[in-house]
Amino acid sequence: MELKNKYVLITGGSSGIGEALAKELAKFGSIPILIARRKEELERVKKEIKESTNIDCYIFSGDITSSQHRERLKEFVITIPRIDIVIHNAGITNHGKFENSTEEALRKTFEINFFSVVELTRILLPILKNNPNKKMICLVSTPSSLYGIPERFAYCSSKAAAQLFLESISQEVYQDNIVVSIFFPGYTKTNLRTSGITSDGKPLSEEQEKNAKEPKEIAVIFRKAIQKEKKYVFTNLTGRVIFYLRVIAPTLLDRLIRKKTKH
After folding, report:
1. Nearest residue to 49 (alpha-carbon basis) of 89, 10, 2
2. Which residues lie across from 139 on neighbouring strands?
């Protein structure tokens, strides 16, 4: 897909992978439409993109898990000339054993990782269909969505649900010239491990993985994947191994995961 003059809506666009993607796509002439809760951070990203590319971003400050805020978003997006690419990037992690979990923490995780994807797609799909050009809907998922990881049940299942939702509707929107792409980033240096929650709803605070990539590196990989309209996109070997072993050698994958996550 040609990126110049494409209007790209990105949730979670005020930091991490979302911010890096907005800046990377703007370098190639795309016009970012950034959605996040923190207005001051959205203003910062908008200013930095303007200074580096002379492209004006659209920004919307709101909570995508709130039906009221999504109604405001619906009014906001109709003021934009069109939407060519949607990137569902906003998300939350949830770490802890199921036996220690609470319903509230699980529902919060699903509200952000799954239901916001579904409901934003519901809002944006008519707009995408009215655009006669080729369009894309992308999801920033995780290799953890491909196979259950110990003490990540909420994160794995919510991301997997969003992935299967988009894979399902991809068959419905194919005739509308809409391509669905799923991104599986490996460990990335973002605030995910400090902005997430434990399985019982407490604030999460974990150290970053030593081999984590910078968001800029991830953004370049994803930008190239969008240009090539790839369906599945991996940033490291781990994601690819899980993707294939889950089908051809699930017992081996079980052993590898138990060894990797052994405490």
Report:
1. 10
2. 88, 182
Give dist(CA 139, CA 88) in Å, integer. Answer: 5
Longest dimension (CA), the chain: 53
Residue 167 has pLDDT above 90, yes or no: yes
160-165, Cβ contacts within 8 angstroms, sequence gap of 24 or more: 161/110, 161/113, 161/114, 162/88, 162/113, 162/114, 162/117, 162/118, 163/139, 165/114, 165/117, 165/118, 165/121
pLDDT computed for residue 34 by the predictor:
98
**φ, ψ at 102 (rounded to 5°):** -125, 155
211: its two tokens:
């081999």
Q: What is the arithmetic mean of pLDDT over 245-261?
A: 87
Quote the distance between the C-alpha of residue 60 and its chain's center.
17
Q: Please provide residue 4's backbone torsions phi and psi, each rounded to the nearest 5 degrees.
A: -65, 130
- Percentage of the chain beyond pLDDT 70 is 99
Q: Which CATH code of 3.40.50.300, 3.40.50.720, 3.60.21.10, 3.40.50.1970 fits the domain covering 7-237?
A: 3.40.50.720
**pTM, entire model:** 0.94
Q: Where are the domains of the chain?
A: 7-237
223 touches 28 (CB < 8 A): yes
Averaged confidence pLDDT in the chain = 94
